[in-house]
Design brief:
The protein has 306 residues and is an alpha+beta fold. The protein has 8 helices and 13 strands.
Length: 306
C-alpha cells in the first residue's frame, strides 16, 4: 500500500482514495500507481500508454484539485482504456477568442457552485476579461488603433489566457458535474481513447491559403484535397493542425516547423508579434480527428506576415 499525507492507494482493489482536504494525491505516487496497473495487467511497454493516460488519470484522481469529485473515485485498467482524452481549443482569431472567453466566463459564473469553481478564480478571471475587453475595443477601433494599443491588448491577453488555462485544466476538463451539452457549449472535445474508433484517420490533406486582412494577422482558409469547393472540415475532424516556421530558409521537412496552431474553423486568424511583420511564415497542415487520429501532412505553403 502506498500512503501520502493527502490520500492513499490500495492497489489490490484498484481504488484511489482522496483525503478530506481534497487537495489531491502526490503526482509522483499517482504515476507510480498508473505503472502498477499497466504492469500487473500485462502491459510491459508502458511508456506511450502512460504518457497518453496520465492527464485524465491525474484529473480523475484529483491531482491539483482538478475538480470536485466527492470523497472517492474508483478506476481500473478497463476504465483507463475506455476513457477519452478531453481537450479544449481556444481560437486564434481576435474576435473569436474574445467570444470564447466571454462564453466560458459567463457560463462558469452561472454554474460556479455546481461545478466546484472557487470564487477567487471567478473574481480573477472576470477582472482580467473586463480589462482585456476594454483594450481589445481600443485596438479594434480604427480611430484609436495604434501599436501601443495593440501591445496593451496583447499584454492583457497573457494573464487572461493563464486564468482560462487554470479554469479548464483544473476545473472543467473531466468534471463529471458537467453534462455532455455543457461540455459542447464550452468547446470541450473528446480526443483519443485507446480502444478502436469507428472514424479512421483521414487520407486526405488540407489545402491552406493564408489571407492578409489586417496588421500582424493571417487568416487561415482551408479546404479538403478531396473536395476543394467546400471550406467545411471533413466529417469527424476536430481541427486543422498547422506546423509552422517563421523567417529564414524554407523548411526542408515538417521537422523544421516547431510552431503549432490548431484551427477549428476556416478563416480563423493567427496573430503574430509586431516584430514578425514582413517576414515569411512557412507551414504544413493536417487534419486531426475528434478521436485524436491524424492524417498526412500537406505540401508546404507560405505567406508574408502583414
Amino acid at each position: 500500500m502506498l500512503t501520502t499525507s493527502t490520500g492513499k492507494f490500495v492497489p489490490e482493489t484498484k481504488k484511489v482514495y482522496r483525503g478530506p482536504n481534497k487537495t489531491g494525491i502526490n503526482r509522483k505516487r499517482c504515476l507510480g500507481y498508473i505503472k502498477y496497473i499497466c504492469l500487473t495487467n500485462g502491459l510491459r511497454k508502458t511508456g506511450k500508454f502512460i504518457k497518453f493516460i496520465t492527464k485524465p488519470v491525474l484529473a480523475l484522481s484529483g491531482y491539483n484539485n482538478s475538480h470536485h469529485l466527492g470523497s472517492r473515485k474508483e478506476f481500473s485498467l478497463q476504465t483507463l482504456k475506455q476513457k477519452s482524452m478531453e481537450t479544449y481549443n481556444i481560437p486564434t482569431g481576435l474576435t473569436l477568442r474574445l467570444e470564447f472567453s466571454r462564453n466560458a466566463v459567463d457560463r462558469c459564473i452561472t454554474n460556479a457552485t455546481a461545478w466546484g469553481i472557487p470564487e477567487t478564480l471567478i473574481g480573477t478571471i472576470t477582472t482580467r476579461l473586463a480589462s482585456y475587453e476594454r483594450k481589445h475595443s481600443v485596438a479594434a477601433n480604427t480611430a484609436t488603433r495604434s501599436q501601443t494599443a495593440i501591445a496593451d491588448r496583447d499584454g492583457d491577453w497573457v494573464p487572461l489566457l493563464e486564468s482560462l488555462d487554470e479554469l479548464y485544466t483544473q476545473h472543467l476538463l473531466y468534471n463529471s458535474d458537467l453534462s455532455a451539452a455543457e461540455k459542447v457549449a464550452l468547446h470541450i472535445n473528446q480526443l483519443g481513447g485507446t480502444g478502436a474508433s469507428p472514424t479512421p484517420a483521414r487520407d486526405t490533406t488540407p489545402i491552406v491559403s493564408l489571407v492578409a486582412e489586417e496588421i500582424s494577422v493571417l487568416h487561415v482558409v482551408y479546404a479538403d484535397s478531396a473536395n476543394q469547393t467546400s471550406h467545411s472540415k471533413p466529417a469527424g475532424v476536430a481541427f486543422c493542425e498547422l506546423w509552422a516556421k517563421i523567417d529564414g530558409a524554407a523548411p526542408a521537412s515538417p521537422a523544421d516547423c516547431t510552431l503549432r496552431y490548431n484551427i477549428s474553423r476556416t478563416h480563423e486568424g493567427i496573430v503574430f508579434e509586431p516584430g514578425a511583420r514582413g517576414k515569411t511564415v512557412y507551414g504544413y497542415a493536417r487534419w486531426v480527428n475528434k478521436n485524436g487520429k491524424t492524417g498526412p501532412l500537406s505540401s508546404v505553403f507560405s505567406a508574408i506576415i502583414p
